[in-house]
Specification:
The protein contains 16 helices and eight strands. The longest helix is centred in the middle third of the chain and has 24 residues. The protein is 49% helix and 10% strand. Helix 8 packs parallel to helix 12 and helix 8 crosses helix 14. The chain is of the alpha/beta class. Strand 4, helix 4 and strand 5 form a beta-alpha-beta unit. The protein is globular.
Amino acid sequence: MRTRRQPTLPFATLPLTNEGNVKLRIAVLGAGSWGTTVATLASDNTPTTLWARRPELADEINTKHTNERYLPGFPLPEDLVATGSIEAAVRDADVVVMGVPSHGMRSVLAEVSRCIRPWVPIISLAKGLEEGTYLRMTEVIAEMLPGHPTGVLTGPNLAQEIMSGYAAASVIAMKNDTIVRELQEVFKSGLFRVYTNHDVIGCEIGGALKNVIAIACGMGDGMGVGDNTRAAVLTRGLAELTRLGVAMGGEPQTLAGLAGMGDLVATCTSSLSRNRYVGEQLGRGKKIDEIIADMHMVAEGVKTSRVVIELADRHDIEMPIAREVFGAVHLGRTASQAYRGLIRHRPGAEGDPA
């Protein structure tokens, strides 16, 4: 087990390692597939504690070094420590990573607020938007824990492939360049490359909206519409998320990069994608409640689709693909009706803002 020591310097000047063997202590909250994967990556570089909502899962990780519910068949590092207590995970942490779904972010942060030390950076892994408030996850964090530096780790990152050792790339975005470069060293591991970015808004919007487009692609796959249709939906979906992302303050180059196009391609085409799976089942005629009931992991695009349409209306932006997904997920429309709706949408010039 690695020795853990209290840092004696402020985070902004604390090196990842030094002659005194001081290392940043990482707490990852959320032991789903992606939270567990990020904890595994971080544990290669620095002492890491993973919080699991279910104490029996924490016991499994500590004793068997597995997480069979979310990552079946993948061994976990023996020095990755798990706990069922948020306080135990957070109280001595130098960095807190929020690996809980967007709809649970606020309630978990409320617990974190009672035991976190001042100024500890908080990184979100969630790819969603909060219903009712339209807030991005870093905005929720800033509201609940003011004064803490916030950021996001995002990109085309399918947990099972990363755990299998395949090459992958991600983006960590923060406003503070010093902190983000320290954290770049925390999360990079082996063939997992981490790039930095200052555009937190673009990274978060890309990560959230691609899930909605992935449902659309999945519906087409479930109906057997073909590769040409998938390519058209994916490409026009990128145009939609870019329009909304830029309207909300993101940068076009971010949405053309790993956090936008890269994540969109992976989520729309992979059989490992939860959101594509939801769409595929809709395309095969299943009802959304039945699909969700059969899943034990969260497909963020289901809830996000409602928020996206409300934001599109607020910013006066046409998003026909997202609107048809919303209709299929929340209004009872069938996948075939959704695709007929897209066909009826009159196209203009490809570069037009609609």
